[in-house]
Amino acid sequence: MSTITSGISSLSGSSGMAGVFSGINTDTLVQRDMAIAQIPMSELTTQKQTITSKETALSDLTAQVKAVQAAADRLRSAAGLRATTVNVSDTTVATATSTGGALSGSHTIVVGGLATAKRQVHGGVAAVDTKVGAGAFSYTYKAGQADAVTRTVYTTADSTVTDLQNLINNDAGNPGVTASILNYNDGSGGQYHLVLSGHDSGSTFNAVVNDTATTLDGSNGTVDFRQASFLETQQAQDAKIRVDGYPVDPAWMTRSSNSITDVIPGLTLTLQKLGTTNVTVSQDTNSFKNNLQSLVTAYNAAQAKFAQYTGYDTATKTSGLLQGDSVTNNMLFQLRAPLTAMASGFVQGTDSFLGPADIGMSVDKNGQLAIDQDKLSAALTKNYDGVLNLVGAQCRGMSSDSHIQFNSAALVTTSGAYQVEIDFTDGVPSAARIRKAGETEWRTAEISGTTITGKTGSPEQGLSLTAVWDGTSTTQTATVNVQKGFAGAVYDNANLILDPVSGTMTSKKKQYDDALAQVGKQIDSEQARLDQLQVTLKAKYARMETTLTQLDSFRAAYASLTGTTSSSSSSSSSSSS
Protein backbone atom coordinates (compact mmCIF):
# COMPACT_ATOMS: atom_id res chain seq x y z
CA MET A 1 0.00 0.00 0.00
CA SER A 2 2.91 2.33 0.69
CA THR A 3 3.82 1.89 -2.97
CA ILE A 4 0.39 3.21 -3.94
CA THR A 5 0.64 6.24 -1.69
CA SER A 6 4.20 7.04 -2.72
CA GLY A 7 3.14 6.83 -6.38
CA ILE A 8 0.60 9.60 -5.97
CA SER A 9 2.40 11.67 -3.35
CA SER A 10 3.64 14.05 -6.01
CA LEU A 11 0.00 15.19 -6.60
CA SER A 12 -0.39 16.42 -3.03
CA GLY A 13 0.33 20.00 -2.14
CA SER A 14 0.47 22.43 0.70
CA SER A 15 -2.52 24.51 -0.39
CA GLY A 16 -6.21 23.61 -0.82
CA MET A 17 -8.14 20.87 0.95
CA ALA A 18 -6.05 17.69 0.89
CA GLY A 19 -7.58 14.23 0.75
CA VAL A 20 -8.16 12.84 4.24
CA PHE A 21 -6.31 9.59 3.53
CA SER A 22 -4.22 10.17 0.42
CA GLY A 23 -2.98 13.68 1.18
CA ILE A 24 -3.61 14.63 -2.48
CA ASN A 25 -4.72 18.30 -3.12
CA THR A 26 -7.92 17.33 -4.90
CA ASP A 27 -9.00 21.02 -5.17
CA THR A 28 -6.02 21.65 -7.42
CA LEU A 29 -6.98 18.66 -9.57
CA VAL A 30 -10.55 19.96 -9.85
CA GLN A 31 -9.32 23.45 -10.73
CA ARG A 32 -7.03 22.05 -13.42
CA ASP A 33 -9.79 20.00 -14.99
CA MET A 34 -12.24 22.92 -14.76
CA ALA A 35 -9.78 25.33 -16.40
CA ILE A 36 -9.61 23.05 -19.43
CA ALA A 37 -13.38 22.61 -19.47
CA GLN A 38 -13.94 26.39 -19.30
CA ILE A 39 -12.25 27.15 -22.63
CA PRO A 40 -15.60 27.13 -24.54
CA MET A 41 -17.08 29.43 -21.86
CA SER A 42 -14.18 31.86 -22.33
CA GLU A 43 -14.81 31.90 -26.04
CA LEU A 44 -18.52 32.62 -25.48
CA THR A 45 -17.68 35.41 -23.02
CA THR A 46 -15.32 36.98 -25.54
CA GLN A 47 -18.01 36.67 -28.18
CA LYS A 48 -20.50 38.42 -25.87
CA GLN A 49 -18.03 41.22 -25.14
CA THR A 50 -17.43 41.74 -28.86
CA ILE A 51 -21.15 41.99 -29.62
CA THR A 52 -21.65 44.37 -26.69
CA SER A 53 -18.81 46.53 -27.98
CA LYS A 54 -20.41 46.58 -31.42
CA GLU A 55 -23.70 47.67 -29.87
CA THR A 56 -21.87 50.49 -28.09
CA ALA A 57 -20.27 51.51 -31.39
CA LEU A 58 -23.69 51.43 -33.05
CA SER A 59 -25.10 53.66 -30.31
CA ASP A 60 -22.23 56.08 -30.89
CA LEU A 61 -22.95 56.16 -34.62
CA THR A 62 -26.66 56.67 -33.93
CA ALA A 63 -25.85 59.82 -31.96
CA GLN A 64 -23.71 61.08 -34.85
CA VAL A 65 -26.47 60.49 -37.41
CA LYS A 66 -28.97 62.26 -35.16
CA ALA A 67 -26.65 65.27 -35.04
CA VAL A 68 -26.47 65.33 -38.85
CA GLN A 69 -30.26 65.08 -39.09
CA ALA A 70 -30.72 67.95 -36.62
CA ALA A 71 -28.34 70.14 -38.61
CA ALA A 72 -30.13 69.27 -41.87
CA ASP A 73 -33.50 69.99 -40.26
CA ARG A 74 -32.49 73.63 -39.77
CA LEU A 75 -31.80 73.92 -43.50
CA ARG A 76 -34.59 71.95 -45.16
CA SER A 77 -37.04 74.82 -45.67
CA ALA A 78 -36.08 77.53 -48.15
CA ALA A 79 -38.64 79.88 -46.59
CA GLY A 80 -37.14 79.38 -43.15
CA LEU A 81 -33.64 80.05 -44.50
CA ARG A 82 -34.58 83.52 -45.68
CA ALA A 83 -32.99 85.25 -42.70
CA THR A 84 -32.94 89.02 -42.70
CA THR A 85 -31.65 91.96 -40.70
CA VAL A 86 -34.01 94.85 -39.99
CA ASN A 87 -33.03 98.48 -39.47
CA VAL A 88 -35.46 101.19 -38.31
CA SER A 89 -34.51 104.84 -38.74
CA ASP A 90 -36.56 106.12 -35.78
CA THR A 91 -37.34 103.48 -33.16
CA THR A 92 -39.25 106.00 -31.04
CA VAL A 93 -42.00 105.90 -33.71
CA ALA A 94 -41.98 102.13 -34.31
CA THR A 95 -39.80 99.06 -34.04
CA ALA A 96 -39.70 96.10 -36.42
CA THR A 97 -38.57 92.49 -36.10
CA SER A 98 -38.29 89.77 -38.71
CA THR A 99 -40.41 86.67 -38.23
CA GLY A 100 -38.86 84.85 -41.23
CA GLY A 101 -39.49 85.05 -44.96
CA ALA A 102 -39.33 88.86 -45.18
CA LEU A 103 -38.22 90.17 -48.56
CA SER A 104 -35.39 92.66 -48.89
CA GLY A 105 -36.46 96.26 -49.35
CA SER A 106 -37.21 99.58 -47.69
CA HIS A 107 -40.58 100.79 -46.40
CA THR A 108 -41.85 104.14 -45.11
CA ILE A 109 -44.19 103.81 -42.12
CA VAL A 110 -46.45 106.66 -41.05
CA VAL A 111 -48.18 106.23 -37.67
CA GLY A 112 -51.36 108.29 -37.48
CA GLY A 113 -52.72 106.89 -34.23
CA LEU A 114 -51.99 104.32 -31.55
CA ALA A 115 -54.36 101.57 -30.52
CA THR A 116 -55.65 102.20 -27.01
CA ALA A 117 -57.98 100.49 -24.55
CA LYS A 118 -60.83 102.38 -22.96
CA ARG A 119 -60.19 103.75 -19.49
CA GLN A 120 -62.73 105.62 -17.34
CA VAL A 121 -62.41 106.98 -13.82
CA HIS A 122 -65.26 107.43 -11.31
CA GLY A 123 -65.79 110.74 -9.52
CA GLY A 124 -64.67 109.10 -6.29
CA VAL A 125 -65.66 108.54 -2.66
CA ALA A 126 -64.18 109.93 0.54
CA ALA A 127 -62.77 106.67 1.96
CA VAL A 128 -61.80 103.29 0.61
CA ASP A 129 -64.27 101.63 3.00
CA THR A 130 -67.13 103.89 1.94
CA LYS A 131 -70.29 101.81 1.61
CA VAL A 132 -71.77 101.95 -1.89
CA GLY A 133 -75.16 100.58 -0.83
CA ALA A 134 -77.26 97.63 -1.96
CA GLY A 135 -77.95 97.45 -5.64
CA ALA A 136 -76.74 96.39 -9.09
CA PHE A 137 -73.82 97.55 -11.25
CA SER A 138 -74.10 96.61 -14.95
CA TYR A 139 -71.75 97.19 -17.88
CA THR A 140 -71.34 96.01 -21.49
CA TYR A 141 -68.00 95.10 -23.08
CA LYS A 142 -67.56 95.45 -26.87
CA ALA A 143 -70.69 97.62 -26.83
CA GLY A 144 -72.33 97.92 -30.23
CA GLN A 145 -70.71 94.72 -31.56
CA ALA A 146 -72.51 91.50 -32.43
CA ASP A 147 -70.53 89.64 -29.78
CA ALA A 148 -71.06 92.23 -27.04
CA VAL A 149 -71.19 90.85 -23.48
CA THR A 150 -73.17 92.38 -20.60
CA ARG A 151 -72.37 91.58 -16.97
CA THR A 152 -74.10 92.61 -13.75
CA VAL A 153 -72.76 92.33 -10.20
CA TYR A 154 -74.77 92.90 -7.01
CA THR A 155 -73.79 94.67 -3.82
CA THR A 156 -75.29 94.61 -0.34
CA ALA A 157 -75.87 97.37 2.19
CA ASP A 158 -72.45 96.58 3.70
CA SER A 159 -70.51 96.50 0.40
CA THR A 160 -67.68 99.03 0.08
CA VAL A 161 -66.07 100.47 -3.05
CA THR A 162 -63.32 97.89 -2.55
CA ASP A 163 -65.94 95.12 -2.50
CA LEU A 164 -67.37 96.46 -5.78
CA GLN A 165 -63.90 96.34 -7.31
CA ASN A 166 -63.49 92.71 -6.22
CA LEU A 167 -66.94 91.71 -7.47
CA ILE A 168 -66.06 92.96 -10.96
CA ASN A 169 -62.60 91.37 -11.06
CA ASN A 170 -63.66 88.03 -9.56
CA ASP A 171 -66.68 87.62 -11.82
CA ALA A 172 -66.15 84.32 -13.68
CA GLY A 173 -67.93 85.74 -16.69
CA ASN A 174 -65.90 88.96 -16.87
CA PRO A 175 -65.34 89.49 -20.64
CA GLY A 176 -62.29 91.73 -20.39
CA VAL A 177 -62.62 94.59 -17.89
CA THR A 178 -60.31 95.26 -14.95
CA ALA A 179 -61.42 97.35 -11.95
CA SER A 180 -58.91 99.17 -9.78
CA ILE A 181 -58.92 101.96 -7.20
CA LEU A 182 -57.01 105.20 -7.75
CA ASN A 183 -56.05 107.28 -4.71
CA TYR A 184 -56.18 110.96 -5.68
CA ASN A 185 -57.87 113.95 -4.07
CA ASP A 186 -59.53 115.91 -6.85
CA GLY A 187 -60.64 118.66 -4.48
CA SER A 188 -64.33 117.84 -4.71
CA GLY A 189 -64.44 115.32 -1.91
CA GLY A 190 -63.52 112.35 -4.03
CA GLN A 191 -60.35 110.66 -2.78
CA TYR A 192 -60.74 107.04 -3.94
CA HIS A 193 -61.82 106.51 -7.55
CA LEU A 194 -63.04 103.26 -9.14
CA VAL A 195 -61.21 102.85 -12.50
CA LEU A 196 -62.54 100.61 -15.29
CA SER A 197 -59.97 99.54 -17.91
CA GLY A 198 -60.46 97.33 -20.95
CA HIS A 199 -58.02 94.46 -21.42
CA ASP A 200 -57.83 94.90 -25.20
CA SER A 201 -57.03 97.91 -27.34
CA GLY A 202 -59.06 98.83 -30.40
CA SER A 203 -62.30 100.61 -31.10
CA THR A 204 -64.38 97.44 -30.94
CA PHE A 205 -63.43 96.84 -27.30
CA ASN A 206 -65.56 99.62 -25.86
CA ALA A 207 -66.95 99.31 -22.32
CA VAL A 208 -69.99 101.33 -21.14
CA VAL A 209 -72.08 101.34 -17.98
CA ASN A 210 -75.69 100.28 -18.49
CA ASP A 211 -77.64 103.00 -16.72
CA THR A 212 -80.98 101.24 -17.06
CA ALA A 213 -79.75 98.11 -15.25
CA THR A 214 -77.51 99.92 -12.74
CA THR A 215 -79.40 100.66 -9.51
CA LEU A 216 -76.35 102.10 -7.76
CA ASP A 217 -77.65 105.48 -8.87
CA GLY A 218 -77.21 107.71 -5.83
CA SER A 219 -80.69 107.07 -4.45
CA ASN A 220 -81.70 105.10 -1.36
CA GLY A 221 -78.33 105.60 0.26
CA THR A 222 -76.28 104.31 -2.69
CA VAL A 223 -73.31 105.87 -4.45
CA ASP A 224 -73.99 106.90 -8.06
CA PHE A 225 -72.05 104.64 -10.47
CA ARG A 226 -74.00 105.44 -13.64
CA GLN A 227 -72.09 106.31 -16.82
CA ALA A 228 -72.26 110.09 -16.18
CA SER A 229 -70.34 109.66 -12.93
CA PHE A 230 -67.30 108.35 -14.87
CA LEU A 231 -64.75 110.49 -16.74
CA GLU A 232 -63.39 108.90 -19.91
CA THR A 233 -59.63 109.43 -19.73
CA GLN A 234 -58.76 107.23 -22.72
CA GLN A 235 -60.86 106.14 -25.66
CA ALA A 236 -60.89 102.67 -27.14
CA GLN A 237 -59.45 103.27 -30.58
CA ASP A 238 -57.57 101.52 -33.38
CA ALA A 239 -54.01 102.07 -34.51
CA LYS A 240 -53.75 103.96 -37.80
CA ILE A 241 -50.85 103.46 -40.20
CA ARG A 242 -49.88 104.14 -43.78
CA VAL A 243 -47.21 102.03 -45.52
CA ASP A 244 -45.30 103.32 -48.54
CA GLY A 245 -47.98 105.95 -49.10
CA TYR A 246 -50.86 103.48 -48.99
CA PRO A 247 -53.69 104.02 -48.46
CA VAL A 248 -53.73 107.47 -49.97
CA ASP A 249 -54.28 110.37 -47.57
CA PRO A 250 -56.66 110.85 -45.78
CA ALA A 251 -57.37 107.11 -45.48
CA TRP A 252 -55.57 104.87 -43.00
CA MET A 253 -55.09 101.16 -42.40
CA THR A 254 -56.48 100.39 -38.96
CA ARG A 255 -55.60 97.63 -36.51
CA SER A 256 -56.84 96.92 -33.00
CA SER A 257 -53.31 96.35 -31.70
CA ASN A 258 -50.05 98.30 -31.80
CA SER A 259 -48.29 95.04 -32.70
CA ILE A 260 -49.00 94.53 -36.39
CA THR A 261 -48.01 91.34 -38.25
CA ASP A 262 -50.13 91.39 -41.40
CA VAL A 263 -49.02 94.50 -43.27
CA ILE A 264 -45.46 93.68 -44.38
CA PRO A 265 -44.99 89.90 -44.84
CA GLY A 266 -42.40 88.48 -42.50
CA LEU A 267 -42.24 91.60 -40.30
CA THR A 268 -43.83 92.53 -37.00
CA LEU A 269 -44.27 96.27 -36.49
CA THR A 270 -44.65 97.62 -32.97
CA LEU A 271 -46.01 101.17 -32.94
CA GLN A 272 -44.66 103.55 -30.31
CA LYS A 273 -45.92 107.06 -31.12
CA LEU A 274 -47.25 109.22 -33.96
CA GLY A 275 -44.71 110.02 -36.64
CA THR A 276 -42.79 108.69 -39.65
CA THR A 277 -39.96 106.15 -39.80
CA ASN A 278 -38.21 104.01 -42.42
CA VAL A 279 -37.81 100.25 -42.15
CA THR A 280 -35.06 98.58 -44.20
CA VAL A 281 -34.90 94.80 -44.63
CA SER A 282 -31.59 93.27 -45.77
CA GLN A 283 -30.52 89.71 -46.49
CA ASP A 284 -28.70 88.05 -43.59
CA THR A 285 -26.41 85.56 -45.28
CA ASN A 286 -24.26 85.02 -42.19
CA SER A 287 -26.88 82.98 -40.34
CA PHE A 288 -27.42 80.86 -43.46
CA LYS A 289 -23.68 80.28 -43.81
CA ASN A 290 -23.40 79.35 -40.14
CA ASN A 291 -26.23 76.81 -40.43
CA LEU A 292 -24.66 75.33 -43.56
CA GLN A 293 -21.31 75.09 -41.78
CA SER A 294 -23.06 73.33 -38.86
CA LEU A 295 -24.25 70.66 -41.30
CA VAL A 296 -20.70 70.26 -42.62
CA THR A 297 -19.30 70.00 -39.08
CA ALA A 298 -21.91 67.43 -38.05
CA TYR A 299 -21.30 65.36 -41.19
CA ASN A 300 -17.52 65.41 -40.72
CA ALA A 301 -17.87 64.26 -37.11
CA ALA A 302 -20.10 61.40 -38.26
CA GLN A 303 -17.74 60.50 -41.11
CA ALA A 304 -14.78 60.35 -38.70
CA LYS A 305 -16.71 58.03 -36.36
CA PHE A 306 -17.76 55.77 -39.20
CA ALA A 307 -14.14 55.65 -40.37
CA GLN A 308 -13.00 54.78 -36.84
CA TYR A 309 -15.39 51.84 -36.54
CA THR A 310 -15.31 50.53 -40.11
CA GLY A 311 -11.73 51.35 -41.16
CA TYR A 312 -8.20 50.11 -40.44
CA ASP A 313 -5.71 51.98 -38.25
CA THR A 314 -2.33 51.65 -39.94
CA ALA A 315 -0.53 53.09 -36.91
CA THR A 316 -1.84 50.49 -34.47
CA LYS A 317 -2.45 47.87 -37.16
CA THR A 318 -5.94 47.24 -35.79
CA SER A 319 -9.27 46.90 -37.55
CA GLY A 320 -12.35 48.82 -36.51
CA LEU A 321 -15.06 46.95 -34.64
CA LEU A 322 -17.38 47.13 -37.65
CA GLN A 323 -14.86 46.72 -40.44
CA GLY A 324 -16.33 44.83 -43.37
CA ASP A 325 -19.92 45.50 -42.27
CA SER A 326 -21.56 46.56 -45.53
CA VAL A 327 -24.75 47.68 -43.77
CA THR A 328 -22.87 50.16 -41.62
CA ASN A 329 -20.82 51.40 -44.57
CA ASN A 330 -24.05 51.97 -46.50
CA MET A 331 -25.35 54.27 -43.75
CA LEU A 332 -22.50 56.71 -44.36
CA PHE A 333 -23.10 56.47 -48.10
CA GLN A 334 -26.75 57.42 -47.52
CA LEU A 335 -25.70 60.53 -45.60
CA ARG A 336 -23.06 61.51 -48.14
CA ALA A 337 -25.02 60.88 -51.35
CA PRO A 338 -27.14 64.08 -51.35
CA LEU A 339 -24.02 66.13 -50.55
CA THR A 340 -22.17 64.97 -53.65
CA ALA A 341 -24.92 64.51 -56.26
CA MET A 342 -27.32 66.69 -58.22
CA ALA A 343 -30.31 67.77 -56.16
CA SER A 344 -33.54 65.95 -56.99
CA GLY A 345 -35.87 67.73 -59.41
CA PHE A 346 -33.42 70.45 -60.49
CA VAL A 347 -33.06 71.04 -64.22
CA GLN A 348 -30.03 72.02 -66.28
CA GLY A 349 -30.59 75.36 -67.97
CA THR A 350 -33.56 76.23 -65.74
CA ASP A 351 -32.06 76.26 -62.26
CA SER A 352 -28.98 78.34 -61.50
CA PHE A 353 -27.48 75.65 -59.28
CA LEU A 354 -27.88 71.91 -59.60
CA GLY A 355 -25.86 70.44 -56.75
CA PRO A 356 -23.79 71.24 -53.64
CA ALA A 357 -20.61 71.51 -55.73
CA ASP A 358 -22.12 74.52 -57.52
CA ILE A 359 -22.09 76.53 -54.29
CA GLY A 360 -18.62 75.46 -53.15
CA MET A 361 -19.15 72.19 -51.28
CA SER A 362 -16.76 69.29 -51.88
CA VAL A 363 -15.42 66.10 -50.28
CA ASP A 364 -11.65 65.66 -49.87
CA LYS A 365 -9.60 62.45 -50.23
CA ASN A 366 -10.21 61.61 -46.56
CA GLY A 367 -13.96 61.82 -46.97
CA GLN A 368 -14.30 65.14 -45.13
CA LEU A 369 -16.73 67.78 -46.38
CA ALA A 370 -15.63 71.39 -46.87
CA ILE A 371 -17.08 74.69 -48.11
CA ASP A 372 -15.29 77.16 -50.37
CA GLN A 373 -16.58 80.33 -48.70
CA ASP A 374 -15.61 82.53 -51.65
CA LYS A 375 -17.59 80.36 -54.06
CA LEU A 376 -20.55 80.26 -51.67
CA SER A 377 -20.54 84.05 -51.31
CA ALA A 378 -20.38 84.47 -55.08
CA ALA A 379 -23.33 82.09 -55.50
CA LEU A 380 -25.39 84.00 -52.93
CA THR A 381 -24.62 87.26 -54.71
CA LYS A 382 -25.50 85.80 -58.09
CA ASN A 383 -28.82 84.21 -57.09
CA TYR A 384 -29.76 84.29 -53.40
CA ASP A 385 -33.07 82.49 -53.93
CA GLY A 386 -31.39 79.90 -56.15
CA VAL A 387 -28.99 78.95 -53.36
CA LEU A 388 -31.79 78.73 -50.80
CA ASN A 389 -33.83 76.51 -53.12
CA LEU A 390 -30.86 74.22 -53.79
CA VAL A 391 -30.39 73.73 -50.05
CA GLY A 392 -33.96 73.83 -48.77
CA ALA A 393 -36.51 73.48 -51.59
CA GLN A 394 -39.56 71.72 -50.23
CA CYS A 395 -42.70 70.86 -52.23
CA ARG A 396 -41.52 73.21 -54.99
CA GLY A 397 -42.12 72.31 -58.61
CA MET A 398 -42.23 73.39 -62.22
CA SER A 399 -43.73 72.15 -65.48
CA SER A 400 -42.24 72.12 -68.97
CA ASP A 401 -45.60 73.12 -70.52
CA SER A 402 -47.76 76.10 -69.54
CA HIS A 403 -50.90 74.09 -70.35
CA ILE A 404 -50.09 71.59 -67.57
CA GLN A 405 -49.40 73.83 -64.62
CA PHE A 406 -47.80 72.86 -61.31
CA ASN A 407 -50.04 73.74 -58.37
CA SER A 408 -48.46 72.13 -55.33
CA ALA A 409 -46.85 69.05 -53.86
CA ALA A 410 -46.95 67.52 -50.39
CA LEU A 411 -44.21 66.30 -48.07
CA VAL A 412 -45.18 62.74 -49.05
CA THR A 413 -44.62 63.48 -52.74
CA THR A 414 -41.44 61.84 -54.00
CA SER A 415 -39.16 64.42 -55.53
CA GLY A 416 -37.87 64.09 -59.10
CA ALA A 417 -39.11 64.26 -62.68
CA TYR A 418 -42.56 63.03 -63.72
CA GLN A 419 -44.00 62.48 -67.17
CA VAL A 420 -47.64 63.55 -67.46
CA GLU A 421 -50.21 62.79 -70.18
CA ILE A 422 -53.71 64.26 -70.19
CA ASP A 423 -56.47 63.37 -72.66
CA PHE A 424 -59.12 65.95 -73.54
CA THR A 425 -62.67 65.41 -74.75
CA ASP A 426 -64.46 68.51 -75.98
CA GLY A 427 -61.77 70.61 -74.29
CA VAL A 428 -62.25 68.97 -70.88
CA PRO A 429 -59.75 66.58 -69.21
CA SER A 430 -61.13 63.06 -69.54
CA ALA A 431 -58.13 60.91 -68.55
CA ALA A 432 -54.73 61.53 -66.97
CA ARG A 433 -51.62 59.42 -66.52
CA ILE A 434 -48.43 59.99 -64.50
CA ARG A 435 -45.17 58.08 -64.17
CA LYS A 436 -41.68 58.80 -62.86
CA ALA A 437 -39.11 59.57 -65.53
CA GLY A 438 -37.52 56.29 -66.60
CA GLU A 439 -40.54 54.13 -65.68
CA THR A 440 -42.40 52.21 -68.37
CA GLU A 441 -45.76 51.75 -66.65
CA TRP A 442 -48.29 54.59 -66.32
CA ARG A 443 -50.45 55.18 -63.25
CA THR A 444 -53.92 56.66 -63.54
CA ALA A 445 -54.29 60.09 -61.95
CA GLU A 446 -57.44 61.49 -60.39
CA ILE A 447 -59.40 64.23 -62.19
CA SER A 448 -61.66 66.84 -60.63
CA GLY A 449 -62.65 69.46 -63.18
CA THR A 450 -59.32 70.77 -64.47
CA THR A 451 -57.34 69.61 -61.39
CA ILE A 452 -55.15 66.53 -61.76
CA THR A 453 -54.03 64.82 -58.54
CA GLY A 454 -51.50 62.03 -57.99
CA LYS A 455 -52.91 58.70 -56.86
CA THR A 456 -52.76 57.86 -53.14
CA GLY A 457 -49.97 55.39 -52.40
CA SER A 458 -47.99 56.33 -55.50
CA PRO A 459 -44.75 58.36 -55.65
CA GLU A 460 -46.79 61.30 -57.00
CA GLN A 461 -49.23 61.25 -54.09
CA GLY A 462 -49.92 64.87 -53.10
CA LEU A 463 -48.95 66.27 -56.51
CA SER A 464 -51.56 68.69 -57.84
CA LEU A 465 -51.66 70.01 -61.42
CA THR A 466 -54.01 72.19 -63.45
CA ALA A 467 -54.81 71.14 -67.01
CA VAL A 468 -55.55 73.89 -69.56
CA TRP A 469 -56.63 72.80 -73.03
CA ASP A 470 -54.46 74.23 -75.80
CA GLY A 471 -57.45 74.38 -78.14
CA THR A 472 -56.37 71.67 -80.59
CA SER A 473 -54.71 68.64 -79.00
CA THR A 474 -56.58 65.57 -77.84
CA THR A 475 -53.59 64.62 -75.66
CA GLN A 476 -51.20 67.03 -73.99
CA THR A 477 -47.89 66.08 -72.34
CA ALA A 478 -45.43 67.69 -69.96
CA THR A 479 -42.51 66.93 -67.68
CA VAL A 480 -43.12 68.06 -64.14
CA ASN A 481 -40.20 68.36 -61.73
CA VAL A 482 -40.80 68.24 -57.99
CA GLN A 483 -37.77 69.64 -56.19
CA LYS A 484 -36.16 68.74 -52.89
CA GLY A 485 -33.12 70.60 -51.60
CA PHE A 486 -30.11 68.55 -50.59
CA ALA A 487 -30.60 69.36 -46.87
CA GLY A 488 -34.06 67.80 -47.04
CA ALA A 489 -32.59 64.76 -48.78
CA VAL A 490 -29.97 64.39 -46.04
CA TYR A 491 -32.72 64.66 -43.42
CA ASP A 492 -34.87 62.03 -45.16
CA ASN A 493 -31.93 59.65 -45.57
CA ALA A 494 -31.03 60.08 -41.92
CA ASN A 495 -34.63 59.25 -41.09
CA LEU A 496 -34.35 56.03 -43.11
CA ILE A 497 -31.41 55.13 -40.91
CA LEU A 498 -32.96 56.18 -37.60
CA ASP A 499 -36.61 55.19 -38.06
CA PRO A 500 -37.55 53.38 -34.80
CA VAL A 501 -39.56 50.74 -36.66
CA SER A 502 -37.88 50.09 -40.00
CA GLY A 503 -34.63 52.07 -39.81
CA THR A 504 -31.27 50.53 -40.65
CA MET A 505 -29.96 51.30 -37.17
CA THR A 506 -33.03 49.70 -35.63
CA SER A 507 -32.58 46.53 -37.70
CA LYS A 508 -28.87 46.40 -36.93
CA LYS A 509 -29.45 46.82 -33.20
CA LYS A 510 -32.07 44.06 -33.29
CA GLN A 511 -29.51 41.83 -34.99
CA TYR A 512 -27.05 42.46 -32.15
CA ASP A 513 -29.76 42.06 -29.50
CA ASP A 514 -30.73 38.71 -31.00
CA ALA A 515 -27.08 37.63 -31.11
CA LEU A 516 -26.62 38.64 -27.46
CA ALA A 517 -29.72 36.71 -26.48
CA GLN A 518 -28.45 33.63 -28.31
CA VAL A 519 -24.99 33.86 -26.74
CA GLY A 520 -26.63 34.43 -23.36
CA LYS A 521 -28.54 31.17 -23.72
CA GLN A 522 -25.32 29.35 -24.72
CA ILE A 523 -23.51 30.82 -21.72
CA ASP A 524 -26.30 29.74 -19.38
CA SER A 525 -26.20 26.25 -20.85
CA GLU A 526 -22.41 26.08 -20.65
CA GLN A 527 -22.45 27.34 -17.05
CA ALA A 528 -24.92 24.62 -16.12
CA ARG A 529 -22.59 22.05 -17.72
CA LEU A 530 -19.58 23.42 -15.84
CA ASP A 531 -21.45 23.44 -12.55
CA GLN A 532 -22.42 19.83 -13.07
CA LEU A 533 -18.86 18.93 -14.12
CA GLN A 534 -17.47 20.45 -10.93
CA VAL A 535 -19.89 18.41 -8.87
CA THR A 536 -18.93 15.29 -10.81
CA LEU A 537 -15.16 15.87 -10.38
CA LYS A 538 -15.47 16.47 -6.65
CA ALA A 539 -17.54 13.32 -6.34
CA LYS A 540 -14.96 11.38 -8.37
CA TYR A 541 -12.09 12.38 -6.09
CA ALA A 542 -14.20 11.73 -3.05
CA ARG A 543 -14.80 8.20 -4.33
CA MET A 544 -11.04 7.86 -4.86
CA GLU A 545 -10.47 8.72 -1.19
CA THR A 546 -13.08 6.16 -0.20
CA THR A 547 -11.43 3.53 -2.39
CA LEU A 548 -7.97 4.24 -0.94
CA THR A 549 -9.39 4.01 2.56
CA GLN A 550 -10.93 0.65 1.73
CA LEU A 551 -7.63 -0.60 0.26
CA ASP A 552 -5.83 0.45 3.43
CA SER A 553 -8.40 -1.49 5.45
CA PHE A 554 -7.75 -4.55 3.28
CA ARG A 555 -4.01 -4.14 3.85
CA ALA A 556 -4.46 -3.93 7.60
CA ALA A 557 -6.67 -7.01 7.61
CA TYR A 558 -4.15 -8.93 5.50
CA ALA A 559 -1.31 -7.98 7.81
CA SER A 560 -3.31 -9.19 10.81
CA LEU A 561 -3.92 -12.55 9.19
CA THR A 562 -0.29 -13.08 8.20
CA GLY A 563 1.11 -11.78 11.45
CA THR A 564 3.10 -9.01 9.78
CA THR A 565 3.17 -5.32 10.64
CA SER A 566 3.20 -2.32 8.42
CA SER A 567 6.81 -1.61 9.17
CA SER A 568 8.00 -5.19 8.53
CA SER A 569 5.96 -5.30 5.40
CA SER A 570 7.50 -2.10 4.29
CA SER A 571 10.97 -3.37 5.12
CA SER A 572 10.37 -6.59 3.32
CA SER A 573 9.08 -4.70 0.37
CA SER A 574 12.10 -2.41 0.48
CA SER A 575 14.52 -5.39 0.71
CA SER A 576 12.76 -7.06 -2.09
CA SER A 577 13.17 -3.92 -4.13
List strands and helices in order, with pairings.
Elements: H1 2-8, H2 26-37, H3 39-73, H4 78-81, E1 84-88, E2 94-98, E3 105-113, E4 119-122, E5 135-141, E6 149-155, H5 161-169, E7 177-183, E8 192-198, E9 207-209, E10 230-234, E11 239-243, E12 253-255, E13 259-260, E14 267-271, E15 275-283, H6 285-310, E16 312-313, E17 318-319, H7 326-340, E18 361-363, E19 369-371, H8 373-382, H9 384-392, E20 394-399, E21 404-408, E22 416-425, E23 428-436, E24 443-444, E25 446-448, E26 451-453, E27 464-467, E28 475-484, H10 486-498, H11 504-562, H12 566-576
Antiparallel strand pairs: 1-15, 2-14, 3-11, 3-15, 4-8, 4-10, 5-6, 5-9, 7-8, 11-12, 13-14, 16-17, 18-19, 20-28, 21-27, 22-23, 22-28, 23-24, 25-26, 26-27
Can you describe what's shown?
- This protein has about 575 residues and is an alpha+beta fold.
- The chain is built from twelve helices and 28 strands.
- It has five domains: about 1-35 and about 505-575, no CATH class; about 85-115 and about 240-285, no CATH class; about 120-235, Immunoglobulin-like (Sandwich); about 285-390, no CATH class; about 395-485.
- Helix content is about 35%, strand content about 25%.
- Helix 2 (about 25-35) runs antiparallel to helix 11 (about 505-560).
- The longest helix has about 60 residues, at about 505-560.
- The two termini are about 15 Å apart.
- About 25% of the residues are buried.
- The model is unreliable at about 1-15 and about 565-575 (pLDDT under 50).
